[in-house]
Prior knowledge:
Blueprint: H1 2-7, H2 9-29, E1 72-76, H3 88-95, E2 99-105, H4 110-119, E3 128-134, H5 142-145, E4 155-159, E5 170-175, H6 180-191
Parallel strand pairs: 2-3
Antiparallel strand pairs: 1-5, 2-4, 4-5
Helix pairs in contact: 4-6
Amino acid sequence: MRKALNENPAVQIALIGVLLAVGALFLMMRGGGGSAKPPSAPAAQAPAPASAGASASGATATTAAPAPVSTSVTAPSSGFEAGPGLPRRVLASYRADDVVVVLVTRDGGIDDELVRGSAASLRSTPGVSLFVTDSRHVARYSSITQGVAVDRTPALIVIKPQRLSNGVPQAEVKYGFRSARSIAQAVRDAAYSGPERSYDP
């Protein structure tokens, strides 16, 4: 057989043709041929919602979205009993029908220091009891701070007088810097007992 391959050119040409045919068949089976069916395009997927820390290229940014300067939320807190989480003086002021103001600040914060100064005028306001605490000691007021979900400082918590709360203590928290006028207005709002008015254009 080897002698026939070496001496006969016709056999050599036939063998080369067979090898070329096998190679072409192999390429077509692997998808290299022009008649092979092209792969179907992947189904379109809805884009995932962008998160606050992701950029358009998909890279995660190192800075988070800034917190709002001030927000407010109203929420009732129940189970007002003196003890851990509620100082006796706070409960006494509430039961005396005062507007109770609890200011939570952080030592060294610029806004925190300014709002402490703004709130100082409440100390001489009749019918208002002011309690100021550092964030490191916020657990002493946890019955109040957890009720309104305090999550940053400065936090100004204003509790309605007992006579206006229908038996369930009600508090409002406002964040960020507050001027003395803004704090006084928050106290007036908490003590207001007149009819509720709605804007009707």
